[in-house]
């Protein structure tokens, strides 16, 4: 019986850990999709950081070029090809060749992020369905324990990341690029349109939005789990169940 109990506890801990990862990835991926595709969010940034003055382009051309860039992120095209009309009435490419190559890398990263979000959603659905099928009448209590544990873990992770970001966004932003890109194409200058359209402050605000959305989701999940478990044994039961929920529930069902 001992090995069986240990195996069950290990499987449960592993499943809850993966559930926590999925709870982290899903809202993060959804928030990234919003930041990358929301015309409202982009235009808000253009207004706040004066993209028209920074690029030297008419605002209508800024908005049109941005719309084409968002369409590119959702397309199957490998490279972006956007032309704008400058103040002299002459057509010109919006981005340099270096920027075009970097945007290809950005698009690939976005696609991987969206795929990770889809995988996270699939795991969450499978986790819930499997728990319901496995625990049946006790499934609600078991899922509440998992929700509390996963939500709390995600809040902790985002809290640590927030401290890192807020203590030095420049360094964190650089490390992000070094970690996720295999070349130096992301190293652009103020002469490049990508920097003119999306200054670092835009990315800081976008990072804050993504963090708040992820923490908000995790907080709601943890609170729901805590409230559900509180009605069935108090906070101590929540913490204990997060470690070995199936075993605790089986003992309760058998009593």
Furnish the topology, listing elements before pairings.
Elements: H1 2-37, H2 39-48, H3 51-55, H4 59-73, E1 83-85, E2 91-93, H5 97-135, H6 139-167, H7 169-180, H8 193-197, H9 200-230, H10 234-254
Antiparallel strand pairs: 1-2
Word description of this protein:
The chain has 255 residues and is an all-alpha fold. The protein is 80% helix and 2% strand. The chain has helices at 2-37, 39-48, 51-55, 59-73, 97-135, 139-167, 169-180, 193-197, 200-230, 234-254; strands at residues 83-85, 91-93. A two-stranded antiparallel ribbon has the order 1-2. A hairpin with a 5-residue loop joins strand 1 (83-85) and strand 2 (91-93). Helix 2 runs antiparallel to helix 4. It is elongated and about 75 Å long. It starts with a helix and ends with a helix.
Would you kindly provide a brief summary of this structure?
This protein has about 260 residues and is mainly α. Helix content is about 80%, strand content about 0%. The protein contains ten helices and two strands.
């Amino acid at each position: 019986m001992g090995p069986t109990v240990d195996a069950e506890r290990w499987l449960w801990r592993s499943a809850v850990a993966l559930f926590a990862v999925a709870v982290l990835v899903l809202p993060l991926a959804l928030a990234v999709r919003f930041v990358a595709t929301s015309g409202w969010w982009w235009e808000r940034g253009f207004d706040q950081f004066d993209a028209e003055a920074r690029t030297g382009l008419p605002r209508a051309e800024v908005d049109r070029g941005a719309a084409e860039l968002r369409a590119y992120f959702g397309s199957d095209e490998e490279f972006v090809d956007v032309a704008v009309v400058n103040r002299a009435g002459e057509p010109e490419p919006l981005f340099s060749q270096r920027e075009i190559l970097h945007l290809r890398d950005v698009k690939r990263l976005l696609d991987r992020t969206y795929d990770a979000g889809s995988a996270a959603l699939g795991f969450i659905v499978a986790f819930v369905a499997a728990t319901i099928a496995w625990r049946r009448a006790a499934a609600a209590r078991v899922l509440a324990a998992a929700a509390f544990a996963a939500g709390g873990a995600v809040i902790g992770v985002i809290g640590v990341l927030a401290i890192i970001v807020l203590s030095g966004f420049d360094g964190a932003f650089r490390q992000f690029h070094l970690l996720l890109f295999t070349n130096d194409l992301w190293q652009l200058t103020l002469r490049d349109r990508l920097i003119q359209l999306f200054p670092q402050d835009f990315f800081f605000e976008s990072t804050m939005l993504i963090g708040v959305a992820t923490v908000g989701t995790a907080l709601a999940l943890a609170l729901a789990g805590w409230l559900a478990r509180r009605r069935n044994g108090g906070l101590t039961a929540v913490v204990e169940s997060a470690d070995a929920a199936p075993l605790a529930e089986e003992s309760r069902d058998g009593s």
